[in-house]
Amino acid sequence: MTTSHRPAPTRRRVAVLGGTGWVGRHVCTALAARGDDVLVVARRPAPHIRPYAFASLDLGHAGRERIAGLLATHRIDTVVNATDALNATDGWARPDEDLDAVNVAAVHRLLAALGDLPWRTRVVHIGTLHEYGDVPPGTLIDEKVTPRPGSAYARTKLAGSQAVLGAVRAGAADGLVLRAANVCGPHPSPASFPGKLVTMLRRALADQEPMTVVLTGARRDFVDVRDLADAVVRAVHSPATGHALNIGSGHAVDMRTLVRLFVTAAGHSTDLIEERTRDVAGLGGAWTRADIRLAGRLLGWSPRIGLAESLGAMWTAATTDGPLRTDV
Predict the structure, then answer these.
(1) pTM over 0.85
(2) 132-147 per-position pLDDT tens digit
(3) CB-based contacts of 103: which residues, under 8 Å, 6+ apart?
(4) CA within 20 to 30 Å of 237's CA: 8, 146, 168, 199, which one?
(5) DSSP letters of 231-285?
(6) Which residues are known catalytic residues?
(7) From CA 193, how far away is CA 168, in angstroms rounded?
């Protein structure tokens, strides 16, 4: 691994790939608040990204030349890859070839395009803690743990992360990979468990029926999407390069506690919940707890938003914004 010591410019021109999605929209907000120029890159625009410049691009199918041309036209010096093949209603059910197209092949084309630019470009790639795969319960997952992904999604995300780190080692770019824990907070993807909780609670309240939730014995690390966005901004401006950094809360919470926290944070009684228990296939292992000390040392980052606050903000945003978007 290498570390660059060049001073970062005070203002960057950042392309946020997948900038209309759950994580991307918060990254755009955080970058703009930092004073950076933001270009949102996605298949189609969305109302919540109107303050920023927008370029239409389907990264899953765009060729190397088109990607390079777009970045050159806008004189982009930093790329944040916030794309994810699960940012769709059918995300968990997507075939392996779709996962590979977005999480692997598109990353390789992006990296090739960066090599075509006349300037060196920084890349911040958002991976997932699920890349590590199944670990024994109680494990504090640090960056020295050997990744052994157990699902097609995690395998393709790992391949994308490894491609970025390989490009950095080869001198084709500089940058970091951020392996994010499970995400919660405002504007969740409908494919995510937090997004499904919002939908289930809405339906239960509308129908005046119990909120039926299938629970597993998993314990997972959840980080607020705004804390993740803060880590991305710090990674954009950090001189550190060539590292994969774990981004999470540093705590593992069981699913029953998560659901109950959400319902109470939304202002309702847990009597509303009807629990059912069964094994459900997940994206990673049954236990995740991120060791976030390296991110603290290299980025000066630590999570600020607690789980109850995050879940409360998630419900507040949902009741303000209307139904969850399924097309970003």
Answers:
(1) yes
(2) 999 999 999 999 999 9
(3) 83, 84, 85, 153, 156, 157, 159, 160
(4) 146
(5) HHHHHHH-SB-SEEEEES-S--EEHHHHHHHHHHHTT--GGGEEEEE-----SS-
(6) 153
(7) 33
